[in-house]
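Recap from last week: sequence in, structure out.
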Amino acid sequence: METVLVRELKAWEELEGVVALQEAIWGRDARDLVPRGLLIASQDEGGLVAGAFVEGRMVGFVFGFPTADPTRHHSHMLGVLEAYRGTGAALLLKRFQRDWCLARGVRQVVWTFDPLRGVNANFNLRKLGATARTYLPDHYGPMTGINAGAPSDRLLAEWDLLAPRVYARIYAPPPSPKAEGLPQANRVEGEVPLEARLDLEAPRLLFQIPEDWGRILREDPALALRWREHSRQVLGHYFARGYVAVDFLRHPNRYVLAKDGALDR
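Predicted structure tokens:
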């Protein structure tokens, strides 16, 4: 496996490289990219822009900035070129961000992610140990590039940097949680959501999302909108009742939702 090195970026030329990476990852037609000048200004005011390098080539980056709470950092973007998504670059970028934040007195990092992108949910909840309890409908308004085609609903990830579960996930990942016997909050056939179950009371339950949200966004706008409305209904309902997204299962893609107090079972 190729060696990945992560370090903070300094020169404006490197920050221009971050703009090029954004275009390659999210699409050259995307209008939601962060320009070089804003990256530089954010760094000037205590923000982080770090890059992941393989043989001297920047293949990924993470960008975050301070919030009104000095112990909380907002991680706005993390991206890795598709060809390097099996190298561990994304995890190394988040480890670097964690260490960088802890050295500055930051105890929590937050960011948003699309609740229907299984790869992202798996990385955030399973691999990093973040949790989510807040649903943000159409948070960014209409988007472009690979995010075009449906309202920009997002979950707010909360990454508590000193939590034992976070340290365990990023350095000694536990086995996947068992799904047997857990009730599911929706019924899905193929890639189509058929029914929402809003009457469950179990300490833990599952919520299934599509296997390939990107394909649905590209090819079937009506189904994409149906999934948005479905996830908004189910996740919004259970979050309001005190459930938290604490883990993720692949194939099929399913969130594990737990009542407060059952987070680390």
